């Protein structure tokens, strides 16, 4: 693929990495589509592959061996985010857990970089991934200047699908465990806030069984 062809892809597609993945240089025999479901885990220390998220939300978890209440969710990864192989990060305490069903593209790490290294935008791909990681880390850190209720509402707005100016539908599988791990509190505290939000009609189930929340402006 030549330089001009890549530029056309960059204009058309969402990210540089996704543009190259969608190009003819990644043949079908290199990429495998897999589905992971709630309860599955990708353990970073064991990963010999690169995973690119196509659909769904995946929580990046720092796991506490003995106490699940002390697990930390550093970020929620979404479409076009990348789970790197253990060639780059080797930490047995980091796992990636889908909130519900998620669809991933899986490729052997060596094949991935052999193909990617031939492109003039190889460096841009790595910079893009670093920038995305910094963006998620900044979101995680920023929340702690607010009270817990506001932190939860900010998370809902971050992950929810907006259906009107004030209403969002929450993703399936976003339960008290992941909210507590992200906000740095206990599930008891999260459940208390969720009850309060239901009490003041900021959080309700719609007729399809999905949770909706009404946007709350932080003063």
From TrEMBL:
InterPro entries: cNMP-bd_dom_sf, RmlC-like_jellyroll, WH_DNA-bd_sf. It comes from the Bacteria. Coiled coil: none annotated. Keywords: Activator. Gene3D superfamilies: Jelly Rolls. The keyword Signal does not apply. This is Crp/Fnr family transcriptional regulator. It comes from Listeria booriae.
């Amino acid at each position: 693929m030549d330089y001009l062809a890549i530029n056309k892809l960059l204009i058309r597609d969402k990210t540089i990495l996704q543009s190259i993945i969608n190009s003819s240089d990644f043949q079908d025999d290199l990429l495998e589509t897999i589905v992971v479901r709630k309860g599955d885990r990708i353990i970073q220390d064991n990963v010999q592959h690169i995973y690119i998220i196509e659909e769904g939300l995946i929580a990046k978890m720092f796991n506490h061996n003995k106490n699940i209440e002390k697990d930390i969710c550093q970020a929620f990864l979404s479409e076009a985010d990348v789970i790197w192989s253990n060639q780059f990060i080797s930490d047995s305490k980091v796992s990636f857990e889908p909130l519900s069903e998620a669809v991933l593209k899986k490729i052997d790490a060596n094949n991935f970089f052999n193909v990617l290294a031939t492109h003039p935008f190889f460096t841009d791909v790595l910079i893009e991934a670093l920038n995305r990681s910094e963006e998620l880390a900044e979101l995680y850190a920023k929340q702690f200047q607010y009270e817990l209720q506001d932190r939860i509402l900010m998370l809902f707005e971050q992950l929810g699908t907006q259906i009107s100016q004030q209403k969002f539908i929450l993703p399936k599988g976003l339960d008290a465990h992941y909210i507590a791990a992200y906000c740095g509190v206990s599930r008891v505290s999260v459940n208390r806030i969720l009850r309060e939000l239901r009490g003041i009609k900021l959080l309700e189930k719609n007729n399809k069984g999905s949770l909706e929340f009404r946007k709350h402006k932080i003063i």
